[in-house]
Amino acid sequence: MAVSAEAQNGQEVLDIVRRERVDVVVLDISMPGRNGLETLKELKRHHPGIAVIVLSMHPKDQYAVRVIKAGASGYITKESAPSELVVAIRKACRGEKYIDPEIAEVLANYIEHGGTEDPHTRLSDREYEVLCHIASGKGLTDLSQEMNLSVKTISTYRSRIIEKTGLSSNAEITRYAISRGLT
Length: 183
Hints:
Arc Repressor Mutant, subunit A, 3-stranded parallel beta sheet, Rossmann fold, mainly alpha, 2 domains
Protein backbone atom coordinates (compact mmCIF):
# COMPACT_ATOMS: atom_id res chain seq x y z
CA MET A 1 0.00 0.00 0.00
CA ALA A 2 1.38 3.40 -0.95
CA VAL A 3 0.07 6.91 -0.54
CA SER A 4 0.42 8.47 -3.97
CA ALA A 5 -0.96 11.95 -3.37
CA GLU A 6 -2.65 14.30 -0.94
CA ALA A 7 -5.23 16.95 -1.78
CA GLN A 8 -6.51 20.03 0.04
CA ASN A 9 -9.95 20.15 -1.59
CA GLY A 10 -12.34 18.30 -3.86
CA GLN A 11 -11.05 19.84 -7.08
CA GLU A 12 -7.50 18.74 -6.27
CA VAL A 13 -8.79 15.19 -5.66
CA LEU A 14 -10.45 15.14 -9.08
CA ASP A 15 -7.33 16.57 -10.75
CA ILE A 16 -5.07 13.94 -9.13
CA VAL A 17 -7.38 11.09 -10.12
CA ARG A 18 -7.34 12.32 -13.73
CA ARG A 19 -3.50 12.35 -13.78
CA GLU A 20 -2.57 9.30 -11.71
CA ARG A 21 -3.66 5.71 -11.28
CA VAL A 22 -5.47 5.48 -7.96
CA ASP A 23 -7.14 2.42 -6.43
CA VAL A 24 -8.63 3.97 -3.29
CA VAL A 25 -9.40 7.54 -2.29
CA VAL A 26 -9.81 8.47 1.38
CA LEU A 27 -12.07 11.48 1.33
CA ASP A 28 -13.04 13.94 4.06
CA ILE A 29 -16.70 14.98 4.01
CA SER A 30 -15.86 18.54 5.18
CA MET A 31 -13.52 20.06 2.62
CA PRO A 32 -13.34 23.66 1.48
CA GLY A 33 -15.12 24.46 -1.77
CA ARG A 34 -16.68 21.32 -3.25
CA ASN A 35 -17.52 19.16 -0.24
CA GLY A 36 -16.70 15.49 0.13
CA LEU A 37 -20.16 14.26 -0.83
CA GLU A 38 -20.12 16.24 -4.09
CA THR A 39 -16.58 15.06 -4.79
CA LEU A 40 -17.61 11.46 -4.11
CA LYS A 41 -20.48 11.70 -6.60
CA GLU A 42 -18.21 13.26 -9.21
CA LEU A 43 -15.56 10.57 -8.67
CA LYS A 44 -18.12 7.76 -9.02
CA ARG A 45 -19.60 9.36 -12.14
CA HIS A 46 -16.27 9.67 -13.99
CA HIS A 47 -14.18 6.96 -12.30
CA PRO A 48 -16.60 4.26 -11.10
CA GLY A 49 -13.80 1.76 -10.54
CA ILE A 50 -12.11 3.81 -7.85
CA ALA A 51 -13.07 2.82 -4.32
CA VAL A 52 -13.78 5.69 -1.93
CA ILE A 53 -13.61 5.56 1.85
CA VAL A 54 -15.18 8.57 3.53
CA LEU A 55 -13.44 9.72 6.68
CA SER A 56 -15.40 12.24 8.71
CA MET A 57 -15.67 14.04 12.01
CA HIS A 58 -19.47 13.74 11.74
CA PRO A 59 -21.32 10.94 13.57
CA LYS A 60 -22.07 7.83 11.54
CA ASP A 61 -25.82 8.33 11.66
CA GLN A 62 -25.44 11.78 10.14
CA TYR A 63 -23.82 10.94 6.80
CA ALA A 64 -23.33 7.15 6.57
CA VAL A 65 -26.46 6.38 4.57
CA ARG A 66 -25.90 9.32 2.23
CA VAL A 67 -22.32 8.36 1.39
CA ILE A 68 -23.07 4.67 0.95
CA LYS A 69 -25.99 5.54 -1.35
CA ALA A 70 -23.63 7.82 -3.30
CA GLY A 71 -21.24 4.91 -3.91
CA ALA A 72 -18.70 5.03 -1.08
CA SER A 73 -17.02 1.77 -0.12
CA GLY A 74 -17.11 2.71 3.54
CA TYR A 75 -17.61 5.43 6.14
CA ILE A 76 -15.33 5.92 9.13
CA THR A 77 -15.32 8.62 11.76
CA LYS A 78 -12.07 10.32 12.72
CA GLU A 79 -12.55 8.92 16.22
CA SER A 80 -12.05 5.39 14.84
CA ALA A 81 -8.81 3.57 15.43
CA PRO A 82 -6.21 3.93 12.66
CA SER A 83 -6.25 0.15 12.25
CA GLU A 84 -9.95 0.41 11.27
CA LEU A 85 -9.01 2.73 8.41
CA VAL A 86 -6.38 0.25 7.21
CA VAL A 87 -8.95 -2.57 7.27
CA ALA A 88 -11.41 -0.39 5.34
CA ILE A 89 -8.82 0.50 2.69
CA ARG A 90 -7.82 -3.15 2.22
CA LYS A 91 -11.46 -4.23 1.84
CA ALA A 92 -12.08 -1.41 -0.63
CA CYS A 93 -9.04 -2.53 -2.67
CA ARG A 94 -10.64 -5.97 -2.94
CA GLY A 95 -13.88 -4.41 -4.20
CA GLU A 96 -15.71 -4.97 -0.90
CA LYS A 97 -17.63 -2.57 1.31
CA TYR A 98 -16.46 -1.73 4.81
CA ILE A 99 -19.48 -1.52 7.08
CA ASP A 100 -18.89 -1.49 10.81
CA PRO A 101 -21.66 -2.78 13.12
CA GLU A 102 -22.96 0.71 13.98
CA ILE A 103 -23.30 1.67 10.31
CA ALA A 104 -24.88 -1.71 9.57
CA GLU A 105 -27.54 -0.91 12.17
CA VAL A 106 -28.15 2.55 10.70
CA LEU A 107 -28.46 1.05 7.21
CA ALA A 108 -30.74 -1.75 8.41
CA ASN A 109 -33.06 0.77 10.08
CA TYR A 110 -33.05 2.88 6.95
CA ILE A 111 -34.00 -0.10 4.78
CA GLU A 112 -36.56 -1.45 7.25
CA HIS A 113 -38.36 1.87 7.49
CA GLY A 114 -37.93 2.88 3.84
CA GLY A 115 -35.79 5.75 5.05
CA THR A 116 -36.26 7.30 8.44
CA GLU A 117 -39.26 9.35 9.41
CA ASP A 118 -37.13 12.41 10.13
CA PRO A 119 -37.88 15.30 7.77
CA HIS A 120 -34.17 16.06 7.20
CA THR A 121 -33.85 12.79 5.26
CA ARG A 122 -35.97 14.37 2.49
CA LEU A 123 -33.36 17.09 1.95
CA SER A 124 -30.90 17.01 -0.91
CA ASP A 125 -27.26 16.66 0.10
CA ARG A 126 -26.65 20.40 -0.38
CA GLU A 127 -29.81 21.34 1.56
CA TYR A 128 -28.70 19.04 4.36
CA GLU A 129 -25.27 20.68 4.41
CA VAL A 130 -26.89 24.14 4.62
CA LEU A 131 -29.17 22.95 7.44
CA CYS A 132 -26.16 21.77 9.43
CA HIS A 133 -24.32 25.04 8.86
CA ILE A 134 -27.35 27.14 9.84
CA ALA A 135 -27.76 25.00 12.95
CA SER A 136 -24.14 25.65 13.88
CA GLY A 137 -24.93 29.36 14.00
CA LYS A 138 -23.53 30.57 10.70
CA GLY A 139 -25.25 33.50 9.04
CA LEU A 140 -26.27 33.36 5.39
CA THR A 141 -23.49 35.74 4.31
CA ASP A 142 -20.78 33.79 6.13
CA LEU A 143 -22.23 30.56 4.81
CA SER A 144 -22.30 31.83 1.23
CA GLN A 145 -18.62 32.78 1.45
CA GLU A 146 -17.64 29.45 3.00
CA MET A 147 -19.58 27.41 0.42
CA ASN A 148 -18.61 29.67 -2.50
CA LEU A 149 -22.28 30.30 -3.33
CA SER A 150 -24.29 33.50 -3.56
CA VAL A 151 -26.40 34.65 -0.62
CA LYS A 152 -29.44 34.25 -2.89
CA THR A 153 -28.56 30.59 -3.52
CA ILE A 154 -28.13 29.95 0.21
CA SER A 155 -31.48 31.67 0.82
CA THR A 156 -33.07 29.37 -1.77
CA TYR A 157 -31.64 26.32 0.00
CA ARG A 158 -32.93 27.68 3.32
CA SER A 159 -36.41 28.13 1.81
CA ARG A 160 -36.38 24.55 0.55
CA ILE A 161 -35.29 23.32 3.99
CA ILE A 162 -38.20 25.17 5.60
CA GLU A 163 -40.63 23.84 2.99
CA LYS A 164 -39.48 20.21 3.26
CA THR A 165 -39.14 20.06 7.04
CA GLY A 166 -41.96 22.32 8.18
CA LEU A 167 -39.56 24.36 10.30
CA SER A 168 -40.12 28.09 10.20
CA SER A 169 -36.99 29.87 11.44
CA ASN A 170 -33.25 29.50 11.96
CA ALA A 171 -33.95 28.96 15.67
CA GLU A 172 -36.26 26.03 14.85
CA ILE A 173 -33.71 24.64 12.39
CA THR A 174 -31.06 24.83 15.12
CA ARG A 175 -33.30 23.23 17.76
CA TYR A 176 -34.28 20.46 15.32
CA ALA A 177 -30.64 19.73 14.36
CA ILE A 178 -29.47 19.68 17.97
CA SER A 179 -32.31 17.39 19.07
CA ARG A 180 -31.32 14.87 16.39
CA GLY A 181 -27.58 15.17 16.89
CA LEU A 182 -26.95 16.69 13.46
CA THR A 183 -24.54 19.37 14.66
